[in-house]
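Late entry, evening session. Most of the bench is empty. Finally got around to the prediction I had been postponing all week. Sequence below, unchanged from the version circulated by S.P.
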Amino acid sequence: MNLAPGPLVGAPAAVLDDALVAEIARGSADAFAVLVDRHTPALFRVAWRMLGNAADAEDAVQETMTRLWTRASEWKSGGLGARPWLHRVCINHCLDRLRRRRHIADAEVPEQVDPAMGAEAAMLSDETRAQTRAAIMQLPERQRAAIILTYYEELPNAVVAEILELNIKALESLLFRARQALRQMLAGAETSIGAMERSS
């Protein structure tokens, strides 16, 4: 790979990602492999929580990485780096899949345990965790995305706002409405919502 190590040693992740995308634009499969390895786990977690289906999540991530490979030359470096862009593309693929699903009856959320769940979620009982997952799946798609990115992926509000193409105030409003809806759906599972309130 043609990355000069000197100036990039100790550089922020966004700068490293920008350098990798520049290499991908020049056709570097090595740079593409590095970026895929770096971002696929987080993108898969987001897609799985958005879609509730591992196969669909894998497809959404693959579509995201295909977009990266084919559109890398259009990338403009700077700002928060490639990570928010990759998340935005992945979320948009998830939203497209959810729109296509609307004519089908709502599927049950899979009962498999997500190994990437945070410490707070791991402490919840299986029943409460399942209720929380099912409630999140019932949120409108953009509210669901905001909750997943903020509380499960623990991304800063500025990054989540960029991913969802919102300003900070609009994101805060979206999160408020999502928490209100979850509170109503989870009247008996206040531990999870309480944790979200304390972290906001």
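Two things to note before I forget:
Confidence is low (pLDDT under 50) at residues 1-10, 103-117, 119-124.
The CA atoms of residues 34 and 57 lie 20 Å apart.
Will write this up properly tomorrow.
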